[in-house]
Amino acid sequence: MTDTAPLARAFDIQAGACAAFGSPFSGALLAFAARDIEAGGVMAPVLAPWAGVSTRTLMEEAVPIRWLGAVHDLVLSGAAPDLAAAWPAPGRAVDADAAWRAARGAMISSPAPFAAFMSHEPQTNEVRRSACLLPGFLTVSAGTGLPLRLFEIGASAGLNQLWDRYHYDYGGAGTWGDAASPVRLEAAWTGVPPPLAGTVSVLSRAACDRKPVDLADPASRRRLKAYVWADQFDRLARLDAAIALGLAARTRPDAADAVTWTARCADPRRGAVTVLFHSVFWQYLPTDSQTALRQVIDDLGERAGPEAPFAWLRMEPMPRNLATVELRLTLWPGGEDRLLAHVHPHGASVDWDPPSAAA
Ligand SMILES: C[S@@+](CC[C@H](N)C(=O)[O-])C[C@H]1O[C@@H](n2cnc3c(N)ncnc32)[C@H](O)[C@@H]1O
Question: Which of 78, 97, 163, 257 lies at a CB distance of 3.0 to 4.6 Å from 130, suitable for a disulfide?
């Protein structure tokens, strides 16, 4: 008999993480699933591909997130009205118990959509991360006085490429951007006031992803939405608005590996600052790709000059502490590396110029 403890543990760990990151509904649903796994219930066939796998591997492969996404996707498909009736909706009291019972019924009556959805690795595109990247772009613009050539790697659907078309509100710390933008990003700000003054000019933008999400494909759009936690209505609304903007802008990252694409495309050019940026991407690279990409970036930095600077802006969890997310900027010529901020993983807050930045 297979030991179900690693699976139940993975679902419980994810339940705690969801609750801690503002989705009590997802936390409760995952906890119901964990108890079902322990009891050898309806989750067993859906999780059959991962039977006997360690908790660590289950978390690395984001199996609980895949399952949550599969349930949400079924709701979004319109094929499960009972589940949809029990699902969180604005103005309706959240009832995780009713949602679990409906999800359980759906897994019994039609397990195939769950298995199909869960065979993919999760892919998200978190628009509010632009609220963390923006002060970085403004720092580059102010520091160089040049227009920006943008290159994003690990861009998913490419929604954060459109950062200069969004409106930002940092509470009492200030606002930035097009006041009429349909994409409105709010983030808490602590630390010294943000560098929101001045204008920024974007000369060009390009992006790549190993598996870009095609916004023009309705199934891909639905999948992107399914990974957003169901009781986070503001995130869902932001994603909808950004998808509409992305569709209108025909945003479509190149399908390419970041290492070769960066080496091929992101050479510094005179008259502009070339900005290579990424968010929550580095950890998905194998170690040898990280080393190769770092070498490519250093080579591009070496080719930079005062009239053709090169900037590397990234919002990434610290390698040995994934819970702490840093916004860092390295600027060539010179290659000065600065910790600009500590930020929330989904972009809800920015702590600008944290104490260690002075070191
Ligand atoms: C967690 S998502 C983050 C997406 C986006 N940057 C954001 O912040 O919303 C990580 C992305 O990195 C992409 N990725 C992973 N390895 C890659 C590689 N070697 N080259 C290009 N993209 C890669 C994945 O396909 C995925 O879209």
Answer: 163
